Amino acid sequence: MSSNLISKVVEINCPKEELLRAIYTPEIWEEISPVKRISIEFTAPNVFYSEIYDEVDIIKIPIEMSGELVMIDKGEDLDKGNLIELNVRNNKDVEKLEARLRIKSLGPNLSKVGVFIHTFKLTSDFLNLLGGASDLILRNKLAAILRNLQKYYKNRV
Fold it and tell me: What CATH number has the domain bearing residue 115?
């Protein structure tokens, strides 16, 4: 098994089954995405196409991206929870992304969500724009997505 480039785990006040359903709905992604503007459309039950506009705070450069995120549900491992593999396609800025999302039940209304990124490779044009800040930007955006997910379900209680 390869080591993780980025690894983030949080507890969410929500049943696991509800979280598993939520990740397949555009509204949850639009609500928790830490970007200035995003639109999401599911083009298949496990593929969403997104258009993103953001400005990276660190370097004050506007970023526009579009592409598809493919989610492959690998099912339940009783000890580790439900595993979903994540990959990008048709994205002119991200050459390769290999990641896993794991959701594990900790109780009737509590779940653990982990995101583990193994490979993150930008195209050379986009990498030249961001320079060495790309890993930091991805790390910060992932942390913000998970914080926003926690807040989203905390406010629903």
Answer: 3.30.530.20
Calpha distance 136→138 (Å, rounded) = 5
- Scan for tokens 């583990």, then name that residue: 116
Domains in the chain, number: 1
Q: Does any domain span residue 1? A: no
Domain boundaries, position 85: 6-156
Task: Classify burial at 157, counting beta carbons within 10 Å of its beta carbon; exposed 0-12, middle 13-18, buried 19 or more.
Answer: exposed
pLDDT digits (tens, 9 = 90+) for 39-76: 999 999 999 999 999 887 666 777 788 899 999 999 99
Residue 114 forms part of a structural domain = yes
Type and span of the H or E element at 144: helix 134-156
Q: Which amino acid type is present at position 141?
A: K
Strand intervals (E) in the chain = 6-12, 37-44, 47-56, 61-77, 81-89, 94-107, 110-122
Q: In sequence order, which ranges of 12-133 are alpha helices (DSSP H)?
A: 16-22, 26-32, 124-130
pLDDT digits (tens, 9 = 90+) for 99-147: 999 999 999 999 999 999 998 888 876 655 666 677 777 888 899 999 9
Phi, psi of 139 (to 5 degrees): -60, -45
